[in-house]
Amino acid sequence: MTNSDQLKKTDQSLIALLSDRISLLAASEQPSLDKQLADVAPLLAEAGIPESVWASVVNSCHATLIPKAATNHVSSRQITIIGGRGRMGRLFKEQLSLVGHNVSVLEHEDWEYADKLLNQAELVIVSVPIEHTVDVIKRAAKYLSSNTALCDITSVKTQPNQAMLEHHSGPVIGLHPMFGPNIKSFLGQKVVVCPGRNDESFQWLLDFLKTKGGELIFCTPEEHDQMMVIVQATQHFCRFSLGVFLAQLKVDIEQSLTMSTPNYRQEIDIVKRLFSQNPNLCVDIMLATEERCNAISYLANTYNRLAKLVARKDRNALIKEFETTQRFFEEKINTFLQPLNTTAIQRDLKPQIHTNISI
């Protein structure tokens, strides 16, 4: 049998197995995409198959199960996105328009039309830079009907949620899309949901995100902001620092990749993605709250302390640091640590605050 014949036979087996997999998913409640990846991560590692390949399979199987009726026959709603010409605003406008909603955009030069664009809207989405979000919420609230649902998609949740509840008497919710604006769909993407008031008014929006393949994670605004200090701000600082370091040394990145490990290639790819974005986005993520600034300062002090041990060639002290941290992860690994999801890493390192600045 030729290689071509063997390949054809293997493809036939794969197609049959994929059909079985889709049927099994359709017949029962689907586990989360991350769990589907985590369950087989050891097998992938043993077989030498990149997790990104399996992530593509899992996402594609999920996409086939999204009911077309749920996206093709919707009740058209009037939606206004403040900051809708920014990259994240454009993404939401495109996705909502695709299923039949009437989506208008309000930018800073359009406020003379605010009464029409906001008062008649069923849903208003605030998609502006962090430092302007609360002020925009206060300004927009003056034009809103008591029935208008108000939502923000900023990466900080406590202050925006408080502002919306204080200045608007109608339905309120806070969303944080855990991805950048370069995605093509919501498939496999996480969205943090922070309820505010009259949550039922947003059920159609949450259903829309789910039918598009999004995964919703519910928490309080305070819980969200605490987690984002570690999940987002310090991670951006780590990659930001590495990029600055490599640039200062004028490292030949291309040459380094010719003799790199998979982990190094992945890290360089993440750093490259970070520095391909608008600098305002990355910097604002790090400076968004006092808690983020304090955590980054503490992290920098940790780097400095460990670097001094390296400078002194204090092998015993470094081993002690390693072993202490090793015990921490050993205690937690059975309760929360999942195998690496490379697709999620690439997704999470894209800037997640949203701006009306065209890039």
Please provide a written account of the structure:
The protein is α/β, with parallel strands linked by helices and 359 residues long. It is built from 16 helices and 7 strands. Strands 2-1-3-4-5-6-7 form a 7-stranded mixed beta sheet, with helices on both faces. Strand 6, helix 9 and strand 7 (215-218) form a beta-alpha-beta unit. Helix 10 crosses helix 12. It is globular. Mean pLDDT is 85; it is low at 336-359.
Number of strands: 7
Q: Report the order of strands and helices.
A: HHHHEHEHEHEHEEHEHHHHHHH
Chain oligomer state:
single chain
Distance between the termini: 54 Å
Task: Please give the structural blueprint.
Elements: H1 3-27, H2 33-47, H3 51-64, H4 68-72, E1 78-82, H5 87-98, E2 102-106, H6 114-119, E3 123-126, H7 130-141, E4 149-152, H8 158-167, E5 172-177, E6 190-197, H9 203-211, E7 215-218, H10 221-249, H11 253-258, H12 262-274, H13 279-287, H14 290-311, H15 315-332, H16 342-348
Helix pairs in contact: 2-3, 7-8, 10-12, 10-13, 10-14
Features:
disordered C terminus, 10% strand, 359 residues, 7-stranded mixed β-sheet, alpha/beta, 59% helix, 7 strands
